Each structure stands twice: as C-alpha cells, then as structure tokens.
Amino acid sequence: MATSFSSSVFVPSISSSSAAKARNLKNLTPRYSPTNFLHYNPLSTRPSVPRVKATLLQDNEDKVIIEESVPSKISSSDTNRGSSEESSSSSSSNTLEKWVIKLEQSTNIFLTDSVIKILDAFYHDRHYARFFVLETIARVPYFAFISVLHLYESFGWWRRADYLKVHFAESWNEMHHLLIMEELGGNSWWFDRFLAQHIAIAYYFMTVLMYAISPRMAYHFSECVESHAFETYDKFIKFQGEELKKMPAPKVAVDYYTGGDLYLFDEFQTSRVPNSRRPKIENLYDVFVNIRDDEAEHCKTMKACQTHGNLRSPHSLVEDDAFEDDSVCSIEMADCEGIVDCIKKSITSEPSKLK
C-alpha cells in the first residue's frame, strides 16, 4: 500500500467505571498499521482518538465483553459455585460466535469476489466507467442501513441517532464520488448506467435483509466492498499518476473537498478528530488520492461498527468531551441488534429467575 493511514476505532465504554477509565485515555495517540488495514479480526478493536471517552481494547483480545456493565447480584458464598458455570457458558458462547462469524465472513467474501469478477469482465480497461459502477454500488449500503434503523425506531425498539448521522455522511460522501465520475464521463454509455442501477437495486434489498438478520455481517460486507474500492483506486493512482497530475480537477470535487462547510465530510471519518483532515485539490491526481483516502476511512468505520455496541459520531464525542459530563458514557444499548444476535443470546444466556 502506497499510503499509510492513522486509525483508531471508537468503542464507547459501557462498564460501571467507564467515566474514570475514559479520563485516563485522553492523551493516547491513535495508531494504525498499514499491513493489517485490509485484513482484520472484527472482534478486535483499536485505541481511541485523543480526547474521546472510550474504553481501550487491545488488538489481541478475542472478544468485546459488553455484559460487564450489569451489576453483579451474586453473593460471596455463591462465587465459587458460579465461576465454573460461567466459564463453561462463556466457552460455549465464544465457540458459537466464532463459527457464526466465520460463516458470515465466508459468505461476504464469496459475494464480493463474484461482484469483482463481473466488474473485471466488463471494465478491464474502462476505468471511469468502472468507477461509476463501483460508486453507484458503494453508496447503497448506507441508506439501506438508514432504512432499517428508521424502521426499528418506528417500532420503538431503539434509537441510534449517531448511527443515522454517520451513515448519512457516508452516503453523502459516496454520492459526491459518483458525481465526480459522472463529470469525468463514466456514465456516458447506457449499458454502464443500466448495469450499475440494476445491481444497486438488488444490492439494496439484499443489504436490508442482511442488516436485519445480522448487522455485523452487513457491516463486514460493506467493509469488503470498501476495501476493494480502496485497492482499485490505489492501483489506478500508481499506474496513471503522472498523467492525472496534468489534468484539471472537476468542479464538483473542488467544491466538495474545499468548500466552506465540511461538517459532513468530518462526520463519516469516525477514526479522526473533526477538522484534522483538510484535503488539497490542485489537479485530478489529488482528487483520486482523496477518493482513495475516503474509502480507507469508510473501511475503518465499517470495522468499528462490527463491534457490538454504540457507534459515536466524531462531533458527538468532541462535544461530550468538551462538557466533561461523566454521564455521556452511560448509553442505553439494545439487547439484540439482529436476528442472529437475538438467537445467540437466547441460546447462550441463562433463563431469568422470577422473584
């Protein structure tokens, strides 16, 4: 990879001592290794961005334990008796979760490879047309996520305001990528428009169903798509870089990346502090470099979303930290995020005791 990116993942703390832990993490510097950017374990997370109230999770941790926020009601006399039962239950839960994740990721890789083969067959040397199709497809998952989240909110299950903000910002970013490709002539042939639009329609309904069943699987699938987009633009820049530097930047790209209001531009980059990235646009080369970097940021955000919990928008985290409110980490979390999650909880959790 030609360019390295600093990355961190926001994993909001929900433990009972979250406020105390959060204050100790403000001076941490985010780290990102380019060697494992495109290949990762969705159950591992990264250190948080400075001045963000979050729990630090090491890369070698097997899973994120979210049940720690529940106060223990076991007396001291029951501790020894319950420890062996908890160990057995935890081992069974970990085994089941690993098999589910393996199945989800294998399916996603198969689907992604299938789409890539279609694009390779039709767009071997037609770069701008390929980018047009790719960007038409890449923006679909984000408003599919928003559709399902709005449905959940209508049912009264839970509200995910930050999820809606971040996913809309991601869709807004991908839409501008699409506008840039249209201005470059990527949609000039009717067949390219026909293929892209029909793939997008099928992709939308598939993503809605996948997100309802398992959000983790849907986010991983989107992360696979974003990873492919990153690799595609990175290769294009390496082979066409000198030629691109001689060509002017499209107006829509200049307006988007250098405009006055960049709130939504900062919003989708959940691993960065707002205002920390301000692109320069001097030629077409800079445009594609920034599009490639955008795909990397989408990839990191999709990683963060695969961790069970609540995604926080960059602006919300900065505002919460500015107020120094200890209650900001106490976020109500839904018991189940998807059908697979609910089934797993019903199998592995102990039956509740009536009092």
Automatic annotation (TrEMBL):
Gene3D superfamilies: Alternative oxidase. One of its GO terms (molecular function) is metal ion binding. Residues 70-91 are annotated as: Disordered. Residues 75-91 have a biased composition (Low complexity). GO terms for cellular component: membrane; mitochondrion; respiratory chain complex; thylakoid. GO terms for biological process: alternative respiration; carotenoid biosynthetic process. CDD domains: AOX. InterPro entries: AOX, AOX_sf. Binds 2 iron ions per subunit. Its EC number is 1.10.3.11. Its cofactor is Fe cation. It catalyses: 2 a ubiquinol + O2 = 2 a ubiquinone + 2 H2O. The keyword Metal-binding applies. The keyword Membrane applies. It is found in: Membrane. Keywords: Electron transport, Iron, Membrane, Metal-binding, Oxidoreductase, Respiratory chain, Transmembrane, Transmembrane helix, Transport. Pfam families: AOX (PF01786). Belongs to the alternative oxidase family. This is Ubiquinol oxidase. It comes from Acacia crassicarpa.
